[in-house]
């Protein structure tokens, strides 16, 4: 390996913490302040190793009789002196160091397709939060009013809607903390705005699905459609997170998000199914009622209805009369 | 396993009721000298019926019974021996005579609808009671005999109050509740003639007598021991019974009565109890309900009864209510039919439902029709029919019909006639 060399100081996960270019030799490395490169590791001696050039212009590293020595990695072996190779990795104290030449090929630049003034940044602005939460509040209060079966005052409505108003900021705050831990950024407004948007979206879709189920008279439409909605919303959620916090491309993010959403919704659905009571005395049917204006289907005659219902009488079950109690 | 807890509480209840009955006996004894005489004279006609678990030899159910002829024929309740019917290998029938001798008995006939069973005690000759031949007058003194738990024979004195006229099948009501262990015992006149069989149905907490007339149809019987499939007999009797009352109900168009601006099915038979209710004030709509029902009074096993007829109508009207909100109110009633049907996984399937819009004259309903079948009694169904009118923005009707233990054909015939009865007198 010929000069100049680039020293990569690695953290304990193997990620590059620091890069130092060395052009002048000899170059001494240690914890002492009189070194060319100072490393903050209590297991490193004040003067630990030295880089020199040999006769054929190769960089050689020598242990300066340090307390804990110098090791080459894979296999781990104590070395007193070593002719450096490109990508050579050594350990001094508890610090790993990798050597590169200046010809090291870096990865291709990732093209940033987000425009400077995209929707995302508008959503992160101070205006979005009051806008989304304001809309959501009106929506929640209005729905609470529509679904109340007794006379209600505005105070009572507020009381009923209060849990959502409390839970939403708490929810956003909790995820902001996760965000802070993972990405070192707090992102509270993003989480709060997106939580509001998703809640609005979910509720609106839920209501729309109810109307469709009622209007078209499709048994169980709501349940299956809600499952699809769950997958889509979850996929959007994952996609957004992947785009923001990773360098995945759109395609990769899309595929990963969709697959994860499918697996997650399927698993939750399966758990729900498994935790259902084994037997129910209650009939399950499409119980949505909407005003008459939304009925989009012709009515059957009474005879027609019952003749089409005939298949209901066929049950298949294990006719076991001897079982235990 | 899980039977321990109910049995224990059952035993406790029996002991408590038994003690109070003993107390009653003391009081009654002070009033009437003949109670003691009656008891002493007929106690050898009484037996205690025990259903014994063959695997553990523990008694699982107890009740009372009595000899009805000199050939050792014993009368008791269907519900006392029902475990033996559905699991004959697991449960056998024993009876204990007044002198504590224990014998095996064989089931020979049942009447599931009237809760009666006939056993062969395999002993001759036996002292026995005779069935009453004449009609009773109100106020006549009757004695109810039984053998609850191991407290010994019990006697309760009361007076005859006539036959009920608001039940589907005639019954004699007793003045007090009976201990479950007295089920199957006789109620007799002073001369020992049987006027009825005690029924202390668990869960209902009401004691009554099955009139002796129904016994005459069961004894004598034309059985060959060991050849009868009793589960099939239960099925036949249930189907015959529901055919009988369904045909009577469907013989003529249903009577209707006004509810708001609607006409709805009225009280369809004397044995149905109907009551009504109007909603409280603090609501943005006016609402009133009527309900008609008979209790599901045919006992099949300890957690499964059948024979229910129940329908309720809920009328709503508003003048200035958002129609989305109005229909949300109706949905609360439509979606939660509060089914009172019993049975568990061993007894019935889960409900199969279908929904659709159905037109009836100038009315349009959203109808949900649900069926479930009895697993051990094929061809017998429970039916739920929910309908909500969707014809008008601020006026509506939700109706909920439940039929227990009917054939498919009768469920549909009743459902059709029921829906046809609704009319709307458009204001």
How does the SSE layout of this entry go?
The complex is a heterodimer of chains A (325) and B (427).
Chain A lengths: L4 E6 L5 E7 L4 E4 L6 E2 L10 E5 L5 E5 L6 E3 L4 E3 L1 E3 L5 E4 L2 E7 L17 H5 L4 H19 L7 H30 L4 H29 L4 H25 L4 H25 L27 H7 L17
Parallel strand pairs in A: 3-4
Antiparallel strand pairs in A: 1-2, 1-11, 3-5, 5-6, 6-9, 7-8, 7-10, 10-11
Helix pairs in contact in A: 2-3, 2-4, 3-4, 4-5, 5-6
Chain B lengths: L3 H28 L2 H9 L3 E8 L5 E9 L5 E4 L1 H9 L4 E6 L5 E10 L4 E5 L9 E2 L9 E6 L7 E6 L12 E2 L12 E3 L4 E8 L6 E5 L1 H4 L13 H21 L5 E4 L2 E4 L7 E6 L7 E9 L3 E4 L2 E3 L2 E9 L5 H13 L16 E9 L2 E11 L7 E9 L5 E12 L1 H13 L2 E2 L3
Parallel strand pairs in B: 7-12
Antiparallel strand pairs in B: 1-2, 1-4, 2-3, 3-6, 4-5, 5-6, 8-9, 8-11, 10-13, 11-12, 12-13, 14-15, 15-25, 16-17, 17-20, 18-19, 20-24, 21-22, 22-23, 23-24
Structure report:
The complex is a heterodimer of chains A (325) and B (427). Chain A has 325 residues and is an alpha+beta fold. Chain A has a six-stranded antiparallel sheet with strand order 2-1-11-10-7-8, with no helix packed on it. Mean pLDDT of chain A is 87; it is low at 320-325. Chain A has helices spanning 119-123, 128-146, 154-183, 188-216, 221-245, 250-274, 302-308; strands at residues 5-10, 16-22, 27-30, 37-38, 49-53, 59-63, 70-72, 77-79, 81-83, 89-92, 95-101. In chain A, strand 10 (89-92) and strand 11 (95-101) form a beta hairpin. Chain A is elongated and about 105 Å long. The model of chain B is unreliable at 1-31 (pLDDT under 50). In chain B, 44% of the residues are buried. Chain B has helices at residues 4-31, 34-42, 78-86, 213-216, 230-250, 323-335, 408-420; strands at 46-53, 59-67, 73-76, 91-96, 102-111, 116-120, 130-131, 141-146, 154-159, 172-173, 186-188, 193-200, 207-211, 256-259, 262-265, 273-278, 286-294, 298-301, 304-306, 309-317, 352-360, 363-373, 381-389, 395-406, 423-424. Helix content of chain B is 23%, strand content 37%. At the A-B interface, helix 7 of A face helix 6, strand 21, strand 22, strand 23 and helix 7 of B.
């Amino acid at each position: 390996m010929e000069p100049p060399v680039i020293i990569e100081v690695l953290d304990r996960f193997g990620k590059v913490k620091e890069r130092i270019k060395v052009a002048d030799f000899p170059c001494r490395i240690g914890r002492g302040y009189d070194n060319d490169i100072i490393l903050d590791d209590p297991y490193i001696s004040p003067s630990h190793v030295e880089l020199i050039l040999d006769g054929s212009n190769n960089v050689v590293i020598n242990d300066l009789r340090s307390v804990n020595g110098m090791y080459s990695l894979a296999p781990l072996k104590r070395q007193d002196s070593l002719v450096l190779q490109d990508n050579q990795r050594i350990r001094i104290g508890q610090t790993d160091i990798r050597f590169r030449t200046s010809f090291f090929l870096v990865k291709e630049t990732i093209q940033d397709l987000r425009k400077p003034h995209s929707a995302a940044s508008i959503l992160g602005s101070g205006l979005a939060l009051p806008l989304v939460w304001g809309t959501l509040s009106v929506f929640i209060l209005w729905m609470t009013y529509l679904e109340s079966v007794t006379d209600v005052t505005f105070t009572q409505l507020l009381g009923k809607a209060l849990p959502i108003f409390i839970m939403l900021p708490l929810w956003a705050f909790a995820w902001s903390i996760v965000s802070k831990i993972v990405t070192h950024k707090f992102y509270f407004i993003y989480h709060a705005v997106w939580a509001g948007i998703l809640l609005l979206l979910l509720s609106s879709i839920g209501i729309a699905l109810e109307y469709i189920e009622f209007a078209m008279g499709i048994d169980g439409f709501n349940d299956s459609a809600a499952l699809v909605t769950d997958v889509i919303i979850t996929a959007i959620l994952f996609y957004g997170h992947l785009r923001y916090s990773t360098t995945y491309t759109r395609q990769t993010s899309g595929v990963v998000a969709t697959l994860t959403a499918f697996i997650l919704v399927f698993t939750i659905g399966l758990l729900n199914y498994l935790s259902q009571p084994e037997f129910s005395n209650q009939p399950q049917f499409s119980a949505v009622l909407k005003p008459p204006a939304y009925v989009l289907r012709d009515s059957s005659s009474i005879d027609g209805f019952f003749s089409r219902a005939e298949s209901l009488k066929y049950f298949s079950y294990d006719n076991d009369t001897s079982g235990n109690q | 396993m899980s039977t321990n807890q109910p049995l224990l509480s059952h035993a406790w209840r029996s002991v408590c009721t038994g003690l109070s009955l003993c107390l009653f006996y003391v009081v009654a004894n002070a009033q009437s000298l003949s109670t003691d005489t009656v008891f002493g004279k007929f106690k050898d006609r009484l037996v205690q019926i025990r259903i014994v678990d063959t695997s553990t030899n523990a008694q699982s159910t107890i009740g009372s019974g009595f000899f009805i002829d000199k050939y050792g024929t014993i009368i008791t309740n269907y519900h006392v021996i029902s475990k033996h019917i559905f699991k004959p290998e697991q449960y056998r029938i024993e009876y204990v005579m007044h002198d504590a001798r224990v014998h095996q008995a064989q089931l020979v006939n049942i009447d599931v609808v009237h809760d009666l069973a006939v056993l062969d005690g395999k002993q001759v000759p036996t002292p026995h009671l005779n069935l009453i031949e004449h009609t009773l007058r109100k106020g006549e003194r009757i004695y109810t005999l039984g053998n609850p738990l191991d407290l010994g024979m019990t006697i309760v004195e009361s007076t005859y109050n006539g036959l009920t006229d608001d039940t589907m099948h005639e019954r004699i009501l007793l003045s007090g509740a009976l201990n479950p262990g007295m089920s199957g015992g006789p109620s007799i006149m002073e001369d020992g003639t049987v006027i009825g069989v005690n029924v202390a149905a668990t869960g209902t907490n009401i004691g009554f007598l099955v009139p002796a007339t129904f016994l005459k149809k069961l004894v004598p019987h034309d059985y060959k021991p060991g050849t009868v499939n009793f589960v099939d007999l239960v099925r036949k009797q249930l189907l015959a019974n529901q055919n009988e009352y369904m045909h009577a109900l469907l013989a003529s168009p249903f009577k209707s009565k006004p509810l708001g601006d609607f006409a709805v099915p009225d009280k369809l038979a004397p044995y149905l109890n109907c009551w009504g209710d109007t909603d409280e004030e603090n609501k943005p709509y006016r609402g009133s309900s009527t309900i008609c029902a008979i209790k599901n009074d045919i006992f099949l096993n300890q957690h499964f009864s059948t024979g229910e007829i129940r329908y309720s109508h809920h009328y709503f009207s508003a003048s200035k209510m958002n129609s989305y909100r109005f229909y949300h109110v109706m949905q609360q009633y439509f979606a939660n039919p509060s089914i009172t049907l019993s049975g568990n996984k061993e007894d019935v399937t889960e409900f199969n439902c279908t929904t659709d819009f159905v037109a009836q004259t100038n009315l349009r309903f959203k109808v949900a029709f649900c069926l479930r079948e009895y697993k051990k009694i094929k061809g017998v169904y429970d039916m739920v029919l929910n309908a909500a009118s969707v014809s008008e923005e601020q006026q509506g009707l939700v109706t909920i019909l439940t039929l227990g233990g009917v054939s498919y054909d009768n469920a549909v015939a009743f459902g059709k006639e029921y829906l046809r009865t609704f009319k709307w007198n458009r204001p």
